[in-house]
């Protein structure tokens, strides 16, 4: 270390020219003489201080590098020269160092790398918001933000588009028509429940469309419609929806009557049936008293009032549309067919007879009509009855109301019962023969049915001299 000190002094003081011109001595605290030159001091050599001759020059201690001046960039080699470019590089590096200057540091950057100009800041400083003045109009404190978040509660709800009246009609009509074919109201409820959100406030149109379509169909379809309305109640439609649908039909009754002349009666039956099924309250009917201007609407309301006012009306309204064809008892159907034929013989109105037979809705039982018609012809034994019945069967056969199978079965039933009929009507075989020939000429029956016609069981011989030959019957 002494050699380093001597070399440093020799480099700094080169001869007497480097010494100051005026020197001053001052006493230090420890009693030593100190050279003073314009505020700079140095310690005299011991010989000069004792009055002995010697080289009176100031002696300065060499600076020692501490931990803060040791750099790893020089691979562990320290820059020891105080003067020259190496010393300047050392001082500049020490000045610009980001490491702490105290001896207790670990050599890490000062302030975690966040101190000084041109620094990036600590890790995570980019997440902190910049300082905002409270007087700034855009300033929001944490408390205000929390209050705003509490006040501003956002709830997202799905947007369901509501269907128009035309879309509702296009969607519901196929469902009702399919229901008329399969009688499965559960399928209708399931299908409507899927689009219930899209119907919105137009749920009442389901009831009105069903009633309008049933008006163009048979009474059995109207009975199915009443059952469907009862099933839809409290599942798809409410009491208010049913009342709104019936109110809409009462307002449109004049237009409905153009297509269905029986519209007032049909709508009155629907209103009475809905009240009997507890779908709407009885006050719905009484609320229209004195507030109806249309004469047809008054007829419908009077019809409903009469049905509800009659004795045991609630029970009888279960069959307001009549009993269904397949569920009616056989005796009831036989009685209705006999009354139909008797009325036809009195009026000879083929269209009315056809309508009555169609309303019975028993196409599988039309052979009963053929059977009863032949029995009436045999029992009446009158030519006009034969002609009238032949015209009726011819009209029903050509309009495909009665099929060839039903016609064949009706004739076969008469053929099988001829022995019993013969006991009551002795001329039964003769009348039957004449009737069969008439029907064959009209094209109602074919040759197969004619060949199966029975004849009397007694054999008739020509004469005693013919050798016992049997007379060949010739029916046509």
Explained architecture:
This protein has 23 helices and 3 strands. Helix content is 53%, strand content 3%. β2 (33-37) and β3 (40-43) form a beta hairpin. With 476 residues, it is mainly alpha-helical. Residues 1-23, 37-51, 67-83 and 463-469 have low confidence and may be disordered. A 3-stranded antiparallel beta sheet has the order 1-2-3, with no helix packed on it. The chain is elongated and about 180 Å long.
Give descriptors for this structure.
disordered N terminus, 476 residues, 53% helix, mainly alpha, elongated, three-stranded antiparallel sheet
N→C terminal distance: 161 Å
The overall pLDDT average reads: 78
| E-strand count | 3
Q: Which term fits the overall shape?
A: elongated
SSE series: HEEEHHHHHHHHHHHHHHHHHHHHHH
Q: How are the strands of the biggest sheet laid out side by side?
A: 1-2-3
Unreliable spans: 1-23, 37-51, 67-83, 463-469
Helical fraction equals 40-55%
As a whole number of angstroms, the C-alpha radius of gyration is 61 Å
Strand percentage: under 5%
Q: Main β-sheet: number of strands, strand sense, barrel status?
A: 3 strands, antiparallel
Count of helix runs: 23
Class derived from helix and strand content? mainly alpha
Indicate the topology.
Elements: H1 2-12, E1 24-27, E2 33-37, E3 40-43, H2 46-49, H3 84-95, H4 142-151, H5 165-182, H6 185-194, H7 196-199, H8 204-215, H9 219-232, H10 239-251, H11 253-259, H12 263-276, H13 283-286, H14 295-309, H15 313-316, H16 330-347, H17 350-360, H18 367-380, H19 383-398, H20 404-416, H21 418-424, H22 428-442, H23 447-451
Antiparallel strand pairs: 1-2, 2-3
